[in-house]
Amino acid sequence: MNDSLVRITDTVSIPMSELRFRFARSSGPGGQHVNRSATQVELLFDVAGSPSLNETQRRRVLRRLKSRIDKESILHLVSQETRSQLRNREEVVERFQVLMREALQIPKRRLPTRPTRAARERRLATKRRRREIKRGRRPVQPDAD
């Protein structure tokens, strides 16, 4: 992998210079190490201001990742899984790649189809079985002789 570019798809790569990182102390157990080391990594990416994305891609990312993007259209990702700042940084960049790849994917158009005859028959057979099971649960009616 080229250190200066984060490859998202075959056509989209984002320079590392567009990614900002912030570091903080991680939460959780770890004793003195966790109290003294800033191993938590937060990745910040300005979606609206990125020259690497065209307008269509920008809109798609803003729509699909809106729960992770703030009002200034900055994407926030945090990693604090490991005790190593470097490993957390690598992990958050990998997650960024996966998220961006999924967000940029163009959804396939659904072709409407009809259920097959076999599928309709299976559905009706299942409904008949359920009907018989429920009929068997009813109280027995005395014969009107």
Give a brief rundown of this model:
The protein has 145 residues and is an alpha+beta fold. The chain is 39% helix and 17% strand.
Average pLDDT reading: 89
- CATH topology label of the domain at 5-104: Double Stranded RNA Binding Domain
Low-confidence stretches are none
CATH architecture heading of the domain at 5-104? 2-Layer Sandwich
Secondary-structure element series:
EEEHEHEHH
**Helix content class:** 25-40%
Proportion in β-strands: 15-25%
Q: Could you explain the architecture of this structure?
A:
It is a single chain. The chain has four helices and five strands; from the N terminus they run βββαβαβαα. The chain has 145 residues and is an alpha+beta fold. The chain has a domain at 5-104: Double Stranded RNA Binding Domain (2-Layer Sandwich). It has a three-stranded antiparallel sheet, covered by helices on one side. Strands 1-2 form a two-stranded antiparallel ribbon. The longest helix has 21 residues, at 117-137. It starts with a strand and ends in an 8-residue tail after the last helix. The model has no long low-confidence stretch (mean pLDDT 89).
Observed structural traits:
145 residues, alpha+beta, Double Stranded RNA Binding Domain, three-stranded antiparallel sheet, two-stranded antiparallel sheet, 4 helices, 39% helix
What is the fold's blueprint, element by element?
Layout: E1 5-7, E2 13-15, E3 19-24, H1 32-36, E4 40-46, H2 55-64, E5 74-79, H3 85-104, H4 117-137
Antiparallel strand pairs: 1-2, 3-4, 4-5
